[in-house]
Amino acid sequence: MELLTDALYWIGAVTVAWVSVSTLGCLLNGIRVWIVGNGNLMRAAKLGKWAVVTGATDGIGKAYAEELARRGFAIVLISRTQEKLDEVSKAIESKYNVETKTISADFGSVDIYPKIESGLAGLEIGVLVNNVGVSYSYPEFFLNIPDIDSAFVDFFSRGLDAEYKSKGIIIQSVLPFYVTTKLSKIRRPTLDIPTPERYVKAQLSTVGLQTQSNGYFPHAIMGWVTTALLPAKLLNKYVMSMGLSQRARYLKKQKQG
């Protein structure tokens, strides 16, 4: 009986110690990422003169271009419409007094890459924000297809980071939840649905600290809840209901003209 009591005591002690150390580690890591941040890492003087941003004329992409320009980077803007590129380029040069360059490219095509390669030739590129995406104007069925694409990009990004970190190259997979953009069809910001500007400013502070990041503290909490606590069946049901609601609103608006 005494042997059993001793065994239970040590099992309990080890369990409490493990939980305490794990909790402390999570707390310290959270302070490091979300409060301390990466300091002045995201500056042109540290990384290189140019930042390249795809999907740079709207939403999160435009916010990245503006925030990186504010931090001293010259900006290469890549997007589909030259008129919008010129407009954003002029605004950034005027406001932040940095050099810009534009490349018009439709990522729905497959023959754009020689043009992009030529446009980037000879530039000292310190940052690439691969933000561009192709999607329907509203949530479409067969959500498993873009989900598979997103999973591949996430896994591929983390794999590249593991391979190239020793060469001084930082690669981060960014997994945001909803942000107030044209793509999300959400216009009113809240604590958990930030503006693109607020999201980008928070996300850039996590570069170099997390290989995979939700980029914004409330999104990190949501990510932890959905992956660690919420049953997959319930999560899928919630995502489906959100998608169906957005789809219905969009189609209704289209019918109304």
Automatic annotation (TrEMBL):
Q: Which Pfam families match?
A: adh_short
The record's Gene Ontology cellular component field reads:
endoplasmic reticulum
Q: Which domain of life is it from?
A: Eukaryota
Any transmembrane segments, and where? Answer: 7-35
The Gene Ontology biological process terms listed for this entry are: steroid biosynthetic process
Listed GO MF terms:
oxidoreductase activity
- Alphabetical list of CDD domains matching this protein: 17beta-HSD1_like_SDR_c (cd05356)
Keywords per UniProt: Lipid biosynthesis, Lipid metabolism, Membrane, Oxidoreductase, Steroid biosynthesis, Transmembrane, Transmembrane helix
InterPro entries reported for this sequence: NAD(P)-bd_dom_sf, SDR_fam, VLCFA-Steroid_DH
Please report the name of this protein according to its UniProt entry: Very-long-chain 3-oxoacyl-reductase-B-like protein
